[in-house]
Amino acid sequence: MAEEAHRSPAAQISVTRNGESDRSNEDVFQRDVPYGLSSGPMTSHSHNSPENYAVTEGVVEVGPYTGALREEQNAGAVVLADDIKSPAIEKLELVRKWSINTYKCTKQILSEKLGRGSRTVDLELEAQIEVLRDNKRKYEHVIKLAQTLVTQLGQMMLTQRQLGDAFADLSLKTPELHEEFGYNAETQKLLAKNGETLLGAINFFISSVKTLVDKTIEDTMINIKQYETARIEYDAYRTDLEELNLGPRDTNTLPKIELSQQQFQIHREKYEKMRNDVSVKLRFLEENKVKVLHNQLILFHNAIAAYFAGNQQQLEQTLKQFHIKLKLPGGDAPSWLESSTD
Prior knowledge:
Order of helices and strands: HHEEHHHHHHH
């Protein structure tokens, strides 16, 4: 009967046994309809709960259903907001901090270039860094010159081989000058062979110095760049704190001064740590550099002196002293004559 009352208003009129309508129920109908219309949306009628409506002699009493709706509204709204806002707030906070730090550092750099801002200077450390940069440029120049020497020696060795072959051919075709052409052919071939030994020594020298410059010194230069960045950040926050201290002190500025003091202390500790790290790095680098260059310069001198003195034994002994093995073309595989004798 509740379903019929829900489908048609006529179902809300009770009928007597004589087939006549009960007039007393009309008063109930007229009294209950305004209450139902003013109680809430009709969609609440679909809840099959005794709290929503009650059937009394065919009359449906309509009441609003708000319990489950309120539970839904109060249950998940806060959790959903936290899930959405928390990552966004964290990202915005990171961007905000990065922007503030970048702005302060850029301002400090411009102030230093324009001569308006002060910068922290460690005279001893700055002098060591400048010497290292100058030495790095000079070592790179030495490497380029040594590579040029290798190229020129290679061209000279090629010419010596060709000249030796030409003398050997003339020695066979000119019987009256056989010995003279033969001596010159052997000399040019010996010079070319010694040149290969010299090239091995010079290439080893270049490789060792390049390792020193491109790896050891470059690793220290990376630490120096990090130190300079920390120094700029330290000076930027130091300047910001000094400006706040010169201003008025009230309830609005005191929290800013306290926050600036904390940031200044953080960047001061970072700057001092990087300064100590660079000092230690420079000391170890100097010791390693002296050791490496000492050996390489002795190798370079002995090899050049033995080559131009024509001392083949001394040249080969120099390579053995520094454990240098020559890689000649076709030297890895034995010749057909060596294979046949084995």
